[in-house]
Amino acid sequence: LGFRMGLLLGLCFSLLLGSTSAVDRGNFKTCAQSSFCKRQRALKPGQSPYRALLDTLELSDSRLTLQLINDNNKVHLLLELYRLQGNITRVKINELKPLKPRFEVPDVLVGEPPTEPLSVLSKDDNGVVLSLGPESQRLIVSARPFRLDIMEGPQVLLSLNSRGLLAFEHLQLRKNTQVDPEGAEVKENVDGAEQQGEEEKVGVRVHGWRIYFKYCLKKPNLFLFLGPTSVSLDFSLPGVEHVYGIPEHADNLKLKTTEGGDPYRLYNLDVFQYELYNPMALYGAVPVMLAHNTQRTMGIFWLNAAETWVDISSNTTVFGKMLDFVQGSSETPQTDVRWVSESGIIDVFIMLGPKPSDVFTQYASLTGTQSFPPLAALAYHQCRWNYNDQEDVKAVDQGFDQHDVPYDFIWLDIEHTDGKRYFTWDPHKFPQPKDMLQGIMDKRRMMVAIVDPHIKVDSGYKIHNEIRDKNFYVKNKDGGDYEGWCWPGNSGYPDFTNPEMRAFWASMFAYDQYEGSMENLYTWNDMNEPSVFNGPEVTMYKDAMHGSWEHRDLHNLYGFYVVMDIANGESDWSLFVCMNAGAVWTGDNAAEWEHLKISIPMCLSLGLVGISLCGADVGGFFKSPSTELLVRWYQTGAYQPFFRAHAHLDTPRREPWLFGPENTALIREAVRQRYALLPYWYQQFYQAHKTGQPVMRPLWVEYPKDTASFAIDDEFLIGRDLLVHPVTEEGARGLTAYLPGHGEVWYDVHTFQKHNGAQNLYIPVTMSSIPVFQRGGSIIPRKLRVRRSSACMENDPYTLYVALNPQRAAEGELYIDDGHTFSFQTKKEFIHRSLTFAYNTLTSRNLCTESNFSTKSWIEKVLILGASKPKKVTLQMDGKETSVEFEFDASMSVLTLRKPGMNAGADWTVKLQ
Ligand SMILES: *[C@@H]1O[C@H](CO)[C@@H](O)[C@H](O)[C@H]1NC(C)=O
Ligand SMILES: *[C@@H]1O[C@H](CO)[C@@H](O)[C@H](O)[C@H]1NC(C)=O
Ligand SMILES: *[C@@H]1O[C@H](CO)[C@@H](O)[C@H](O)[C@H]1NC(C)=O
C-alpha cells in the first residue's frame, strides 16, 4: 500500500560500521555546545521583556492578531490566535517585519485547519478575555508582561509565557556587513565580531556571527548576513505531573525533569550505538508532547523543523495568584516545559483533550493518521545485513519452511546493490533478481530491498547524472552541489524538498526504471536523517541550501520529504513502499537486555504521537544475543506492531533454527502466536488509520484515572483488549504484572484463567511464557491454522474468543479486506462487523452498510470465556435455526462452540439457552 504521511518525521533505518564501543558522546552536541540552546537556557524566568500592544488588536471571525513589543530592543512581533475545530488553539508568533521571510513548515498539515469563531468576552488595559466556545473555556491575553492562559471555569489548564521565557531572536544585519548596491559580493569584516553566534563543531566560517542566511536579493551573489534566529516559549501545566511523547529518545515513557541535565533534543541523527535513558537526539523527531492527569489529557504540537530542545521541570506552586479568575490558592503540582528551536517561527497547537482519545483525534485532524499497512507488513520480517547472494536468500527461505516458521518478508540491505548504487543489483551476487523474486513469490512471500537517499557521485551512474543535470542536488553554501561521505563513498544528496525531485524519485520505482524489480519487491528507506558520515554530528551542514532555505530550517523534515511522494502512491509506479511513513524502528539497538526493555517505552512514545507501526530490531542489531535473550526478544517482538529481526554484518548468523530444536520451537511458537493474531492486528491498524488512535497503548490511555498506571512501561495494551507483559529480565522465574480496571476481569490467553483487575498479579514464568491477557468484555478474532505466510492464510477460518465481563457481556469487531490494495477506500471493498455478546446471545452485525466485500472465510469455532453451561446452543442465520455442538470446561468456565459454520461476512445470531 502506498502510505499517507502526515507526520513531522525523519526516521529511517540506518546502519553504521563500527566496533563495540558505546556512543561517542563527543560526536553529538550537548545544550552547552549548541550555542542557541546555551544562550536560551541562560535566560532566567520572570523577566519577560514582552508586552502586548492591546490597541493593535484585530479580530476577524476566527483570527485574532495583536502586536507584541520587546521593551529591550523595541522589536515588534505579531501574535496570531486561532480557535480551531475540535478544541484546538493555535498560537503563532512571528516577527512583524522580518528582514526576509522566516521558515514556516509546509506540507506537514493535511490542510488549513478549519476554524471556529472567536469572540471577545471582555477587554481592558490589562488584557483581553476570549471565549473558546462551550464549557466556559476561555483564553486570556495578559498585556504586561505578555502571557496567555487557557482556562476552563475557574481552572487554569495551561499557560504560555507564564515564566517569561518567550524569546524571539529577530533577523538583523550583521553590524559590519556592507551591502554593495552594485550587487558585488558582500564584504564582511570579521574583526571584532561579537562572540554570540553559532559555532558548528565542524565548519566554523567566521568567529562570532555565522553566515546565517544567504538571502538572494536582486542579483544572485548578493547575500545578507543575518544573526541568530532562535525562538523559545514556555508552557506551564498546573496540576500535571506526567508528560509523555516528543520521540525519538531512548528513555522511559514518562518524561523526566531535565533540571540539572540536558534538555530532550529533537534533531534527526544517525547515532552509532546510542545510550539508554538519556535525552540525546536519535533518528527521528516528532515535536508533540502529551500532558496527563486524572482529570484531563492535553497535547502541545510545536510545528518547527529546526533543531529543537525541550526542557521539563516540575514545580509545586501556588498557582495563578496574578489572575483574578483563579480561585483558591492550594498547592498544586505543576510541570513546566520550554521549547527552543534554532530557527523558524513559533507555531504551536494546543490540543485540549479532555480525554486521551480526544487528543489523538485532535492531532490526527492536523497531520493525518497512520497509513493502513498491508496485512503482510504486520507479519514477521526476516532481515540481516546482509543476505549474501541469491543462493543465501533461497537457503534462508527454505530454512523457514523446513523448520515450520512462518515469515512474510525477507530484506536485503545495502550489499545487494552494485557498489551502493541504489536501484541496481550486484551483478555477481544477485545476477537474476527476478528469478529470486519469483521464487519468493511462489511461496506467497515478499522481499524488501534498500534504497538510500544518498547518490554515488559517479559519472557512470545514470541516476547521479540525471539528478546533477536537472540541478536537483542540495547545494552547499557556495552554490555548488553538496557532497558528503556515505556508503558509496562520495555522495550527492538529492533535494527532496523540491517537488520535481520527488516526482523524479518516485518515477525511479517504475518496473521499467528499476530493473529487476517486480510486484513483490518493496522498498526500505534508510539513512534519511540525512546520514552523512563526515558531516557535523553525522549529518548535513546546517548551511547547505534547499532552494532559498537553509538545511538548518528544515533538517527534521528531510526524511519526511524523502518518502513523501513515493509514499503517496500515485499509481504510475507500482512498487510498494513498505517501510516508511508508517513503519519505523527504534534505531540501531544492541543485543542487550536493557535494549529489549526499552523497546517498549520507545514504541509507546511513538504510538502516542501518531506512529503506530513501530518495532525494535529483534535480537538487537549490534552484538550477539544469548539464546535466552533472542527467544525473549522474539516473544516480545511478536506482540509489538512491527516485527522484524535484524543484525549487524559482523554478528554471527541467527536465523531462528540455529540454536537447537528446543529454542527453535520456542521461537516458532512466538511467531505462530503472531500469525494467529493477525486479524486483530489488522483491525487495530484499520482503526488507527481511521481514527488516529494508537495501536500499542500505554495503560493510562485506557485507564486515565488510574494513577498506578501512569508510569508503567514494562507492559502495554494492544488496542483496548490485550494486555502484554513480556518477559524482559534475564533468568526470570516470575514477574509481576499490573492488571488495571476496578471491577474488571482479565483472562490469561493461554490458560483462560480469570483474574480481577486493579491488582498486581505475580506470574510464574518459564522459557515458553509470554504473559498476555484478554480484557473481560471483549471479542478477539484469531486464525489458528498458521501457514508459511499471511497470504496463505487468506481464506482460512476464524476462531472468536469472547471474554465475558462481570456483567456477562462482551463486544468486538471483525475487519476483513483484500489485505493489500486501496479498494477498501476507493470501492468500499471490506467487511466491517460488530460482534456483541449480551443476554446469552452473540450477534454479528454489519457496521458499514455501503461496504461490499465477500470472504471465503467462515467461523470455525467460538470460545466463550467466563461462561456457564447452557442446555442448548442455536444458530440463527438466513431465517433458519440450527443447533450448534458445544463443549463446556467447568474448571475454567470455557464454553467452546464447534463448527458453527457461518460465513465471516454474514449476519448471524448464536443463542445460549
Ligand atoms: C471539547 O471539550 C469539551 C469540554 O472539555 C468536551 O466536552 C468535548 O467533548 C470536546 N470536544 C472534542 C471534539 O474533543
Ligand atoms: C515555580 O513556579 C513559580 C511560579 O511560576 C516560580 O516563581 C518558581 O520560581 C518556580 N520554581 C521553580 C523551582 O522553578
Ligand atoms: C458488490 O459488488 C459486486 C461485484 O462487483 C456487484 O455485483 C454488487 O452489485 C455489489 N453490491 C453492492 C451492494 O454494491
TrEMBL record:
Reaction catalyzed: N(4)-(alpha-D-Glc-(1->3)-alpha-D-Man-(1->2)-alpha-D-Man-(1->2)-alpha-D-Man-(1->3)-[alpha-D-Man-(1->2)-alpha-D-Man-(1->3)-[alpha-D-Man-(1->2)-alpha-D-Man-(1->6)]-alpha-D-Man-(1->6)]-beta-D-Man-(1->4)-beta-D-GlcNAc-(1->4)-beta-D-GlcNAc)-L-asparaginyl-[protein] + H2O = N(4)-(alpha-D-Man-(1->2)-alpha-D-Man-(1->2)-alpha-D-Man-(1->3)-[alpha-D-Man-(1->2)-alpha-D-Man-(1->3)-[alpha-D-Man-(1->2)-alpha-D-Man-(1->6)]-alpha-D-Man-(1->6)]-beta-D-Man-(1->4)-beta-D-GlcNAc-(1->4)-beta-D-GlcNAc)-L-asparaginyl-[protein] (N-glucan mannose isomer 9A1,2,3B1,2,3) + beta-D-glucose; N(4)-(alpha-D-Glc-(1->3)-alpha-D-Glc-(1->3)-alpha-D-Man-(1->2)-alpha-D-Man-(1->2)-alpha-D-Man-(1->3)-[alpha-D-Man-(1->2)-alpha-D-Man-(1->3)-[alpha-D-Man-(1->2)-alpha-D-Man-(1->6)]-alpha-D-Man-(1->6)]-beta-D-Man-(1->4)-beta-D-GlcNAc-(1->4)-beta-D-GlcNAc)-L-asparaginyl-[protein] + H2O = N(4)-(alpha-D-Glc-(1->3)-alpha-D-Man-(1->2)-alpha-D-Man-(1->2)-alpha-D-Man-(1->3)-[alpha-D-Man-(1->2)-alpha-D-Man-(1->3)-[alpha-D-Man-(1->2)-alpha-D-Man-(1->6)]-alpha-D-Man-(1->6)]-beta-D-Man-(1->4)-beta-D-GlcNAc-(1->4)-beta-D-GlcNAc)-L-asparaginyl-[protein] + beta-D-glucose
Keywords for the protein's UniProt record, in alphabetical order: Endoplasmic reticulum, Glycoprotein, Glycosidase, Golgi apparatus, Hydrolase, Signal
Signal sequence, start to end: 1-22
EC assignment: 3.2.1.207
Assigned GO CC terms: glucosidase II complex; Golgi apparatus
GO BP, sorted A to Z: carbohydrate metabolic process; N-glycan processing
Gene3D superfamilies: Glycosidases, glycosyl hydrolase (family 31), Golgi alpha-mannosidase II
GO MF annotations, alphabetized: carbohydrate binding; Glc2Man9GlcNAc2 oligosaccharide glucosidase activity; glucan 1,3-alpha-glucosidase activity
Localisation per UniProt entry: Endoplasmic reticulum; Golgi apparatus
Domain Glycoside hydrolase family 31 N-terminal: 80-311
Pathway: Glycan metabolism; N-glycan metabolism
UniProt main location, coarse: endoplasmic reticulum
CDD domains: GH31_GANC_GANAB_alpha, GH31_N
Top EC group: hydrolase
Domain Glycosyl hydrolase family 31 C-terminal residues, every copy: 692-780
Domain (Glycoside hydrolase family 31 TIM barrel) ranges: 371-683
Similarity comment: Belongs to the glycosyl hydrolase 31 family.
Protein name listed in UniProt: Neutral alpha-glucosidase AB
Origin organism lineage: Eukaryota, Metazoa, Chordata, Craniata, Vertebrata
